[in-house]
Amino acid sequence: MRTIMEPFRIKMTEPIKIITKEERIQKLEEAFHNVFLLDAEDCAIDLLTDSGTGAMSAQQWAALMLGDESYAGSRSWKRFRDTIKTITNIKHVFPTHQGRAAESLLAMTRIKPGDVVPNNSHFDTTRANLEVAGAKALNLLNDEGLDPTLDAPFKGNMDIAKLEACIEEHGVAKIPFCMITVTNNTGGGQPVSMANIRGVKEVLKRHGIPLIIDACRFAENSYFIHEREEGYRGKALLEIAQEIFSYADAATMSLKKDGLANIGGFFVCNDDVWAEDFKNMLILREGFPTYGGLAGRDLEAISVGLMEALDFEYQTYRHATVSYLMNKLEKKGIPVMKPGGGHAVFLDAKAFMPHIPSLAYPGIALVNALYIEGGIRAVELGSVMFGSFDEAGIEQASPLELVRLAFPRRVYTQSHFDYLAEVIEEVWNHREAYAGLKITKQPKVLRHFSCHFQPL
Ligand code: F0G
To answer: Does any ligand 1 atom lie closer than 6 A to the CB of residue 256?
Structure first.
């Protein structure tokens, strides 16, 4: 059969309320044109994030009931630890309440002011946690990853020459670790090849620098390796994931993505000193090391979810949803980042809204338009999210202006995607009608979550 159908049926539903266009215009004004400030129930299709927004399986709901809520040494903790060890084979396992808690404790325990941390591309919370601790967070993405029109299999790869140059320039003493994010969320959800992870590790090993994998979407990345990299076709996704982690000295993860859970995170590491420092900070900030900010029932649901994310049928379907929307948009000539990502389709807002300069935020204009036209909530990954200021305080544009349509896992069906494609086409056909915006209020860090805009 040509149709790749959802490998599940739906046992429980949630109503979607569809408000009128006039109401949406009003709601957006009340939210200062920042879709993070909208009420979720006013969004017909919520593609703000794929984080914690997925549907759990019957097996996960059943597992919740097995949650052992003991403070220390619970059965659920042992299941969680053993599942993560099966996948990563990394010695010390610590639960955290979500990914950024793992990042924050890592930064607190391992960063000194003046340090430098390379990554293919840092996610915004990773960057913020490292920078708050005094480090400089560097993106060393391969040039391929910066060209939204280029169709290449592994646009999330780190540029190994840039990594060598970075080590040469800053010196080993200033680089406590290097990170690699799989898939590369902020660069279009693009995968990293096994060869690249191996190559990065080889360079780091020569210099004695540890490698930390930001593993949020490790299962989606494993599927891409299976499909696109020579030598992996015959392998199970679990085996591929195990190889990815075999190159890591440590990993952080938001289990709200490929943990198929609504909350959760972890930190794993092989080094005993790192583990001891992390554990002590975990007790202070998150909780005892056998629950780390999570309920026993969460640990159970995550243990099931992690293995479901490595199910080949599930990944086949998930990637098919991305391709389905990509095909529809490409047929209409709508500018998208190529190829489709693992968890999202990224519209190229610079090409979509060429009449809006970067510092009038074409991505935000597009996000606003999608909401007004169809109640779609998307997120800008451009000059607002990655905005920076030079030493003279002048705002710098981001190299890419993307709008991410992130797909919650196992939530929306084919007709939702058909509707979405129609809304995007409608906005595309009237793109000149949308104006840029200016920021009227912003916090110092992570401004995109709460800043206020005003149309120009
Ligand atoms: N690293 C990556 C690559 C992420 O995508 C995220 C979260 C985090 C770390 C932090 O994890 O949210 O559990 O604290 N990304 C979400 C997103 C929020 O929408 O892409 P968290």
So the answer is: yes
The parent domain of residue 379 ranges over: 21-50+312-455
Residue 252 in domain: yes
* 332 and 279 share one domain: no
pLDDT tens digits in sequence order for the chain, 456 residues long: 888 999 999 999 999 999 999 999 999 999 999 999 999 999 999 999 999 999 999 999 999 999 999 999 999 999 999 999 999 999 999 999 999 999 999 999 999 999 999 999 999 899 999 999 999 999 999 999 988 899 999 999 999 999 999 999 999 999 999 999 999 998 889 999 999 999 999 999 999 999 999 999 999 999 999 999 999 999 999 999 999 999 999 999 999 999 999 999 999 999 999 999 999 999 999 999 999 999 999 999 999 999 999 999 999 999 999 999 999 999 999 999 999 999 999 999 999 999 999 999 999 999 999 999 999 999 999 999 987 889 998 999 998 899 999 999 999 999 999 999 999 999 999 999 999 999 999 998 889 999 999 999
Q: Which of 185, 221, 302, 402 to mutate to test the pocket of ligand 1 (most atoms within 8 A of CB)?
A: 185
* CATH number of the domain bearing residue 401: 3.90.1150.10
In a domain, 14, yes or no: no
CATH of the domain at 134: 3.40.640.10
Q: How far is the CA of 264 from the centre of ligand 1 (A)?
A: 11
383 lines ligand 1 (CB under 6 A): no
Confirm whether the ipTM is greater than 0.90. yes
Domain count, the chain: 2
Kindly report the three-state secondary structure assignment for every residue of the chain.
CCCCCCCCCCCCCCCCCCCCHHHHHHHHHHCCCCHHHCCHHHCCEECCCCCCCCCCCHHHHHHHCCCCCCCCCCHHHHHHHHHHHHHHCCCEEEEECCHHHHHHHHHHHHCCCCCEEEECCCCHHHHHHHHHCCCEEEECECHHHHCCCCCCCCCCCECHHHHHHHHHHHCHHHCCCEEEECCEHHHCCECCCHHHHHHHHHHHHHHCCCEEEECCCHHHHHHHHHHHCCCCCCCCHHHHHHHHHHCCCEEEEECCCCCCCCCCEEEEECCHHHHHHHHHHHHHHCCCCCCCCCCHHHHHHHHHHHHHHCCHHHHHHHHHHHHHHHHHHHHCCCCECCCCCCCEEEEEHHHHCCCCCHHHCHHHHHHHHHHHHHCEECEEECCCCCCEECCCCCEECCCCCEEEEECCCCCCCHHHHHHHHHHHHHHHHCHHHCCCEEEEECCCCCHHHCCEEEEC
Q: Are residues 432 and 394 in the same domain?
A: yes
The answer to whether residue 63 is domain-embedded is yes
